Amino acid sequence: xxxRGQPVRIGPEPYASWRRTTLGSITEAIEERVILxxxxxxxxxxxxxxxxxxxxxxxxxxxxxxxxxxxDADPAMLAAARSRAARQGLAVAFAEGRLERLPFADASxxxxxxxxxxxxxxxxxxxxxxxxxxxxxxxxxVIGELGRRSVWAGxxxxxxxxxxxxxKRARFRTASQLRVLMSDVGIEVDVMRGAVFFPPMGxxxxxxAPADPWLGRHTTVGAAFIAATGAKLG
Length: 234
Known about the structure:
Blueprint: H1 12-19, H2 22-39, E1 46-50, H3 56-62, E2 67-72, H4 75-88, E3 93-96, E4 109-115, H5 124-133, E5 135-146, H6 151-161, H7 175-183, E6 187-195, H8 202-208, H9 212-218, E7 225-232
Helix pairs in contact: 2-8
């Protein structure tokens, strides 16, 4: 069991198992596409993937020509991330560190991304403040989080009440809460997207996934995944 104040650690195997399912592979692809779309052209950019996990997003960004660093508090995740980068022949740097105390100098990166991370961090405000600190003025922050008002969130809350160590302490957010979290630390949010509007069923995911990008550009209502991006003021 995690100690109070410590981030939730899941480990690489649950992620790998999730991606092997139809529902997991479809959902993961949709969420990653949203983050990459909001990141835009990353070629020759210095990019930090905060809470990089097993390196899936970091490698996808590196494959687009960015100079990528991934940071995570879990050594097992970092080992999996390094193995992934090596298999793909990508030069990605990985470092161990807490999100609330990032081991990087001020203004070190052009772009900072964080995908489904803050929901597992006790001090989300401190983590976003640190992401902003290491971002250069005018640089962009992209955050993707688990939506609060969706069927997925409801089921996850039930699992948490039943004792799931993953979901017991997770916190889900609305689009407005995510916007405030970023605005409070000097990020001018200019784009908000929703994603994963289908219920957690593989067959429905397969049928409804093609409509997801259109829905996400028009609303965040009912989205299981919410993403926002904005520039650092000053």
